[in-house]
Amino acid sequence: MSVLKEVTVSAAVGKQVFTSAQPQVVESVSLKAVSACTVTIRDGYASGDVVIEMIGASGTSIQHQFEGIRFDKGMHVKVIGTNGKCYLELN
Q1: What is the DSSP annotation of 28-78?
Q2: Count of C-beta atoms within a 10 Å radius of residue 7
Q3: Which residues are paired to 84 by β-bridges?
Q4: Fewer Cβ in 10 A, N or C end of the chain?
C-alpha cells in the first residue's frame, strides 16, 4: 500500500523527513512549482549523497516514477521555490 507524503518549501537548509530508523522506498516524486522550483532528495542527512534532483519551471507540475528507490540511511529533502510542494509516493 502506497502512502503520499507532502514536503513543503524548506529553504536552503532542507528537512530531515525520515531517519535511519525509518527506511523508506520511493515509488514516485511529484513537484508542483508555482514559481521556479527545485527538489533535492539525499540518502541520509543533509550531507548525504544526492539520489533524486528535479527542477520545475514556473507554473508546472512534473512527476517521475521509479521502480522503488530504497533509502536506508534516512531521507533529507530540500524544496526551494515560492509555494513549491513535493509529493513522495512511498511504499
Answers
A1: EEEEEESSSEEEEEEESSTTSEEEEEEEE-TTEEEEEEEEEEEESS-EEEE
A2: 21
A3: none
A4: N
**Global pTM value:** 0.92
All residue ranges of the chain with pLDDT < 50 are none
Residue 42: closest CA among 79, 8, 85, 68: 79
User: Would you give the DSSP letter of residue 82?
Assistant: T
The answer to whether 36 and 58 have CB atoms below 8 angstroms apart is yes
Residue-level pLDDT at 12: 81
For residue 84, the 8-state DSSP code is -
Q: What's the pLDDT at 61? A: 95
Domains of the chain: 3-90 (2.60.120)
Do the Cβ atoms of 24 and 71 come closer than 8 Å? Answer: yes
